[in-house]
Amino acid sequence: MLPASALSAAAASSSMTGPQGARMKSMLAGLRANGEEGRQVEALTQLCEMLSIGTEDSLSGFSVDSFVPVLVGLLNHKSNPDIMLLAARALTHLCDVLPSPCSSVVHYGAVACFCAWLLTIEYMDLAEQRVALSTAANMCRKLQKIWFVTRLLGGLHP
């Protein structure tokens, strides 16, 4: 039996194939490059660009379970506010484009990070506040719809 991290890596490998997959693997490696802030900023910038112009179809191979925990970790990168802001933007774009990541974003603790941002004026500028508020509101709306549909379908099909 493989550990959870190996299963996650295996799932990410199988879903990230072809030229787009190679690009996503490279970005994920850049995001995970602890201590190399320049590489992380570059990977975050590329990811934000890809997600901002992507569609649900073009991002069908995107591994939410591989990227979201890393992005949430980067939200807490207090030594570099640019990394924090770019990670927030990436999560925002991700939730806007794909239907599935909201539950993962909540599961990995992004809402708590966004709320902490709102309470910490030190890192807050107008752009960060807008990103934090819009992302949290978007996730709440989507999760509320998912919950409602699940309850509705659950009530119809015992």
Automatic annotation (TrEMBL):
Instruction: State its Enzyme Commission number(s).
Output: 2.3.2.26
Coiled-coil stretches are none
Q: Which domain of life is it from?
A: Eukaryota
Can you name this protein? HECT-type E3 ubiquitin transferase
Q: Which UniProt keywords apply?
A: Transferase
InterPro entries recorded for this chain?
A: ARM-like, ARM-type_fold, HECTD1/TRIP12-like, TPR_TRIP12_N
The UniProt catalytic activity note for this protein reads: S-ubiquitinyl-[E2 ubiquitin-conjugating enzyme]-L-cysteine + [acceptor protein]-L-lysine = [E2 ubiquitin-conjugating enzyme]-L-cysteine + N(6)-ubiquitinyl-[acceptor protein]-L-lysine
Example GO biological process: protein polyubiquitination
Q: Which GO terms describe its molecular function?
A: ubiquitin protein ligase activity
Record's SUPFAM superfamilies?
Answer: ARM repeat
List each copy of the E3 ubiquitin-protein ligase TRIP12-like TPR repeats domain by range: 20-130
* UniProt organism field: Lolium multiflorum
